Amino acid sequence: MDEMNRGRTAPKKRPNLLLRILTFLITLVLVVGAVVLVVNYDKLNFDSIKRWFAYRNLERNESGQSQSFTFEGKDSSSFAMLSGDLLVCSPSSIRLYSGSAQLYVNQTVSMEAPSVQVAGGAALVYDVGGQELFVYRDRAEAFSLSLSDEQQFIAASLNPQGWLVTVTQESGYKGIVTVYDSAFSPKIRFRLSSRFIMDAALAPDSSAVALLTMGLDEDSFQSRVDVYSLERTEEETDPDWTCPIGSDVILALRWNDSGIWALGESSLSIVDDSGTLSGSCSYGGLYLKRFSLEGDGTAALLLGKYRAGTSAELWVVSPDGSIRASLPTEEQVLSLSAAGRYIGLLTADRLDIYNQDLECYNTLTGTQSARTVLQQSDGSAMLIDSTTARIYVPQ
Question: What is the pTM assigned to this prediction?
Answer without folding.
Answer: 0.86
